[in-house]
Amino acid sequence: MPFPPKLWRPCPQLGKTKVNRFAPKNLLRQGLTLVFGLSFGSFLVGCNPTNIPIGPTSINSRYTDEQPSLSANGRFLAFVSNRNGSRNILLYDLQNRQFADLPGLNRQNAIADSPSISNTARYIVYLTNNQGRASVILYDRITRGSQVIYQPYQGWIRNPKISPDGRYIVFESGGRGQWDIEVLDRGPSIELDLIDGVPSGFSLTGPQ
């Protein structure tokens, strides 16, 4: 289905049309064609989906916006955008309808790609490509720090995903000449991203 059903509005233009059954067949055929054409034209004009908002504070822009990742609580949306003259990862707060700050995540000398976010978007895992060498990077929105999770000596990596609680990271690696699945366990001592909130004393805008 190309558009969500809620975007479609009722179309009163498509009403019933009476046709004289005694009319000649050629006139009847022309009349039905005309009626169908008018009705279909009214459908296209009157029932188009709502226009997509575009602006500096909107999810969509006049540039390419792709690779969306939605947090488990449904509040945050991470995606890759070519706006602002470069290819960056952006994080949008659907509740407050504004972008969240990601200091230190996007860098001029590296291309960020394929974001995946945890329960409340505390953790963001993504790919970077720096001078042809790819890495899996983990970004923490509380500490505002990034760390290299995996960097192969050779071969390609793609499609990193993080578990909702932020403990596990999975991705595809091509070091053996074929695509394999890799799973990384960050360990039981990490601070999990809980669906009902974050550990006491922390805020998603930074340390308290």
Automatic annotation (TrEMBL):
InterPro entries found in the cross-reference section: 6-blade_b-propeller_TolB-like, WD40
Pfam families for this protein: PD40
Which SUPFAM superfamilies has this protein been placed in? DPP6 N-terminal domain-like
What family name appears in the similarity comment?
Belongs to the TolB family.
Q: What is this protein called?
A: Periplasmic component of the Tol biopolymer transport system
